[in-house]
Amino acid sequence: MRIERTGHIQPIHPYRQQEMRQEEAKKKGKERDQLEISTEALELQKNQETEAERTERIAELKKQVQAGTYHVDAKLIAEALLKKGM
């Protein structure tokens, strides 16, 4: 005995189904994938940039100290201490 399904639609190849979904999405004007970076990740990135600047500044100061050309501005230090104290 042989049973046949009436009105049966042949399955579409899975890759073709994916292509069809993509085409439908384009037609509907769906948004594309987006990437959102968390605030924590942005802070970490900012800290890395600051760290590189800090490293360069320290190297520059070391060279000045070794060459004997580094001079401290006492007035700027005193002003900074007064601002922090208030």
Automatic annotation (TrEMBL):
The keyword Acetylation does not apply. Residues 1-52 are annotated as: Disordered. Residues 16-35 have a biased composition (Basic and acidic residues). Residues 33-83 form the Anti-sigma-28 factor FlgM C-terminal domain. Keywords: Bacterial flagellum biogenesis, Cell projection, Cilium, Flagellum, Repressor, Transcription, Transcription regulation. InterPro entries: Anti-sigma-28_factor_FlgM_sf (IPR035890), FlgM (IPR007412), FlgM_C (IPR031316). Belongs to the FlgM family. This is Negative regulator of flagellin synthesis. The lineage of its organism: Bacteria, Bacillati, Bacillota, Bacilli, Bacillales. The gene is flgM.
